[in-house]
Write a structure and sequence with these properties.
The complex is a heterotrimer. Chain A is α/β, with parallel strands linked by helices. Chain A has 14 helices and 8 strands. Among the domains of chain B are: about 240 residues, 3-Layer(aba) Sandwich (Rossmann fold), CATH 3.40.50; about 70 residues, no CATH class. The chains are: A alpha/beta, B alpha/beta, C alpha/beta. Bound molecules: iron/sulfur cluster. The site of iron/sulfur cluster has 14 residues of chain B, from helix 14.
């Protein structure tokens, strides 16, 4: 029986960078994995939660839990998220959040516990896309001697909240994607969800530090693009790059893995990914 | 009862911009914090057994906070038995009054002081100054900022925002005023030598010494001080009157607890097994001894701390002020301590400042000075849930309506839409309409009205895709694969 | 007598040096006086350049040193006078209660018969350590401190643990030795066999 996974695309990928999610689907399906997409999914609620709007986050979290329960409590397909940060939100925050919010909404203790349990069940099933693939996938569809240097940004939440994420770079390297972290890689890029909107000045100062280190990798190793498993960070950095008139391509790791599968891991194809975007 | 903390009255944008423009400060802060972080990681890597000790220390410290009222009593009894005096100060102003009274009774004219964050918190120097009593800071960094009339910018390295030339200018001025020989050059060696000689005389002549405290041991009535310069040893052994002003939360239960925790500040703060000097005060000088104070007074400061016990923020009281969270914080590295506007900067500062004062000052700290990157959580040797607390504090700020309105309205509306699949779809079409209507370019700002203004100041706003993934998926299904 | 574990001594020496402490090696106790006189630049001094914290115990023989050059604290002395001497001395000598190998630290007690001032005021501090005073870990040493206090029924009013020279990185993060306390600290590790038998 083929493995089935449920895809959580995240709001950002859905609306702004659907190519990333499409690539993610292709990569999974190419490996014979059956992909389900529960269509009633929206957003994990992290923007609201981190900004201090816990009830608002809980509304989205409950929707998430209901959508991925798929009616059958036996359903235990892994939920593959296209963002390390969103995966961490579901795994680390949902159970307590839903418990507390239920009590806040004057639900009974029993009901609150029930929500907590449901959230825990869901949390157990959630993994970040590339980490899931790393754990379940054979090395590469098309073993290759290609090696394309790229700058890899491991987002803070994936790095610190998802155990095992230190393998993320290796996973890409196995596929011919020569992922290199910039200097001071563990320092935040300044995105921070709503932080990037409510404190743009500092958020941008942090982006500039990050981009300076990224540029050094581009210069020293001829890296052809900036990539990450987290679109939030990427959109923030890309927005800054474009404002500074830089044309450094920016893409999600799924898009690069798809290129690797297709043996198209060249600078020209990477350029094309970006041109395809947002048109 | 809420405590009182001094604060910088400049509004946040002003504090922030001043910090961002200070390139000297940003450079040094970046250098120093990264180096501290590196050596800390190294010492932990090289000594895997520290981890076990740390875990025990965390458990014992939590328990001490839980039992604090009882331990305070035990500590006081012990100290009094050894001939010391103890006081409990509920608020900052009480602590100042007690210290002033001791000074008046002993006709104190000059005070030497080793570094203490609590005395910054209660603004002791200002109060003594008003009484005409000169207080001399003796930690080199504190001495520098005292000459410059500034506040510390880092709890371990208070003058890290100044470079050698700026320090030299201060010392030149000081020398001219005192009519003594100025430092030989701008060389850091020479500057340090100047401070050594200049402060030596004050050490020998002072009527009273003031220290803070790193740990209090309830079982034995011991106060532990940790320094690298040796100034605390001067303060504790030379003047005839010694006043130690310490936050109540510095308590540990017994000697065993002290054994586990005593190396943590140096390990996590500066990556060494111990700082150069660890000094333990147990009693005033016994007759016939060569050194030590004739009187020893310990002022235990509450100032908003006790009220945190029994709340979900209780673990904050386990902080040992090691500075590790400041050192890893990307925001702290960017703006340094002054931008926080509080005595306590960095991740622990943005949590403690509103909590100790019940949000009376600087309510913007949790939202403006944290990206929630979780680096502090990883660094904190006392396992304090800093990011979770920051989220909770943001929540409280919203509930108490201490924030600006626009963000709140947006996020509430957003949640209403995005809580269901149909609302989500509607919001996307609405965004598309709005963009067609308002924007020259199609972009995502319509999704969260109002908030993209900030983003757009410095970054291009991303565009909503012509076909979302949802639409692609439906399309594909309809076509049949 | 049981042999002292030399690996502990070695570990102490390594850690002490990595803390920027220095070592003075002597083969016979007679060598120490000359070394100390040299270090203290005694010839250039009018006043007594060397101050000693007292409580000599097994270092009693220091009392045979040139009294023109050395001042030793004894209970009953005038603290003011001794403090003045320490403030003007170029080198201070103390013993220690114990030393910890893993932290490269020494622990000094302030008691009636032993003063901490020689370890604080002069620019050079020499600490005399008997090999069997070195314990493996700082943790263990702290336990010993507690035990000592219990056995004697008395806590030293001040305890000082030294793990390196006085230092600061307060200006531009650059490490400078010798701010308020001594800039040079020397450990003299003496074997009983040297201490007991004269040359
Ligand atoms: S919060 Fe933790 S890391 Fe920060 S100063 Fe306190 S103990 Fe150190």
């Amino acid at each position: 029986m083929p493995i089935t996974v449920q895809l959580f695309v995240t709001c950002l990928a859905d609306m702004i960078r659907p190519q990333a999610a499409i690539a993610a689907v292709h990569v999974l399906e190419n490996r014979g994995i059956q992909v389900e997409f529960p269509e009633r999914q929206t957003c994990c609620g992290q923007f609201s939660y981190n900004a201090g709007y816990q009830h608002e986050a809980a509304v989205m979290a409950r929707n998430f839990v209901q959508v991925f329960e798929s009616g059958s409590p036996e359903d235990s397909a892994d939920i593959v998220a296209l963002s390390g940060s969103c995966a961490a939100m579901v795994i680390n925050t949902y159970p307590q959040l839903l418990y507390e919010d239920a009590l806040q909404q004057r639900k009974s203790e029993t009901e609150a516990r029930e929500w907590k349990k449901r959230a825990e069940k869901i949390a157990h099933r959630v993994q970040e896309w590339s980490m899931w693939l790393d754990r379940h996938g054979e090395a590469s569809l098309a073993p290759t001697d290609m090696s394309l240097p790229v700058v890899y940004h491991l987002g803070c939440h994936m790095r610190r909240l998802l155990p095992g994420s230190e393998r993320a770079e290796e996973f890409l390297k196995d596929k011919g994607i020569d992922a290199r972290e910039p200097e001071n890689a563990e320092e935040c890029c300044g995105f921070g969800g709503t932080y990037s909107f409510t404190e743009p000045v500092l958020s941008t100062a942090l982006a500039d530090d990050k981009l300076a280190n990224i540029q050094r990798v581009v210069d020293d190793a001829q890296a052809v693009c900036l990539t990450s498993a987290d679109l939030g960070c990427l959109l923030h950095l890309e927005g800054r790059l474009r404002r500074q008139k830089s044309s450094l391509p920016v893409c999600h790791v799924a898009e690069l893995v798809e290129l690797a599968d297709q043996k198209k891991l060249t600078p020209a194809y990477v350029q094309e990914l970006v041109r395809g975007g947002g048109e | 009862m809420a405590g009182q903390l001094p604060f910088d009255e400049r509004p946040w944008p002003e504090r922030r911009d001043a910090a961002l423009q200070n390139q000297t400060m940003r450079h040094t802060i970046g250098f120093v914090t990264r180096r501290f972080t590196l050596v800390k990681q190294e010492v932990y890597r090289a000594n895997p057994d520290i981890e076990a000790s740390r875990t025990v220390a965390v458990g014992q410290k939590r328990k001490a906070i839980h039992d604090l009222p009882e331990l305070l009593e035990r500590f006081r009894t012990q100290v009094e038995e050894h001939g010391g005096h103890t006081y409990l100060a509920a608020r900052a102003e009480d602590a100042v009054d007690i210290a002033l009274n001791i000074a008046r009774t002993n006709q104190v004219k000059s005070v030497i002081k080793s570094k203490s964050m609590v005395t910054e918190e209660i603004e002791l120097n200002q109060a003594f100054g008003k009484e005409g009593i000169a207080v001399r800071e003796t930690d080199l960094g504190e001495y520098i900022i005292q000459l410059a009339h500034e506040k510390p910018s880092h709890i371990l390295a208070p003058a890290v925002h100044r470079n050698r030339h700026q320090v030299a200018d201060l010392f030149q001025e000081d020398a001219a005023q005192k009519k003594i020989a100025p430092p030989h050059s701008d060389d850091i060696e020479d500057l340090t030598r100047y401070a050594r000689e200049r402060l030596r005389q004050e050490f020998l002549q002072a009527d009273m010494g003031v220290t803070g405290g790193n740990f209090l041991v309830a079982e034995t009535g011991t106060l532990v001080l940790i320094t690298n310069e040796g100034n605390a040893d001067m303060v504790t052994s030379l003047p005839p009157v010694l006043v130690s002003i310490v936050g109540v939360e510095k308590m540990v239960e017994n000697w065993t607890s002290l054994q586990e925790i005593i190396q943590q500040p140096a390990m996590s703060g500066i990556g060494r097994h111990l700082s150069s000097y660890t000094t333990m005060i147990h009693a005033p000088k016994s007759s016939g001894s060569a050194e030590g104070p004739e009187q020893w007074h310990v002022i235990l400061v509450d100032n908003g701390r006790m009220a945190l016990r029994g709340t979900k923020f209780e673990d904050v009281l386990s902080c040992i002020r090691c500075g590790a969270c400041l050192n890893v914080c990307p925001v702290f590295r960017e703006v340094g301590g002054h931008a926080y506007g509080s005595v306590y900067p960095g991740p622990i500062g943005i949590v403690e400042t509103p909590l100790l004062t019940d949000f009376q000052i600087l309510p913007e700290l949790p939202s403006k000075l944290c990206t929630l990157c979780h680096a502090c959580q990883e660094a904190c040797p006392m396992d304090i849930s800093l990011p979770q607390h920051i989220v909770s504090l943001r929540h409280i700020v919203i509930k108490r309506h201490l924030n600006s309105g626009m963000v709140g309205w947006t996020l509430k509306t957003w949640a209403r839409f995005w809580g269901t699949a149909s609302g989500y779809r509607r919001s996307i079409s609405l965004a598309r309409v709005m963009q067609r209507f308002y924007g020259k370019r199609r972009n995502a700002s319509g999704l969260i009205p109002g908030m993209f203004a900030g983003w757009g100041q410095t970054r291009e706003i991303p565009q909503v895709a012509p076909q979302t993934f949802h639409e692609w998926w439906q399309d594909r299904n309809q076509k049949g694969e | 007598m049981l042999g002292v574990d030399e690996t502990i001594v070695q570990q102490f020496e390594e850690k002490w040096q990595s803390n920027a402490g220095k070592l003075l090696h002597i083969n016979h106790r007679e060598e120490l006086e000359d070394l100390i006189l040299d270090l203290s630049a005694a010839d250039a001094f009018k006043e007594k350049p060397i101050v000693v914290g007292g409580s000599l115990g097994q270092w009693e023989w220091i009392r045979t040193w040139n009294p023109e050059k050395v001042s030793i604290w004894s209970p009953g002395d005038d603290p003011e006078v001794f403090r003045h001497q320490c403030a003007n001395a170029s080198l201070g000598i103390t013993g220690c209660a114990w030393a910890a190998a893993d932290a490269g630290s020494v622990c000094l007690y302030s008691q009636k018969d032993s003063s901490l001032l020689p370890s604080l005021l002069p620019p050079i501090h020499v600490v005399l350590i008997a090999k069997d005073q070195i314990v493996l870990s700082f943790h263990e040493g702290m336990g010993k401190l507690y035990q000592d206090a219990h056995d004697q029924g008395l806590w030293p009013s001040l305890v000082k643990i030294v793990a390196g020279p006085s230092m600061t990185a307060d200006i531009e993060g650059q490490l400078i030795l010798g701010v308020h306390g001594p800039r040079d600290i020397y450990a003299v590790i003496i074997d009983d066999s040297i201490g007991i038998q004269p040359n």
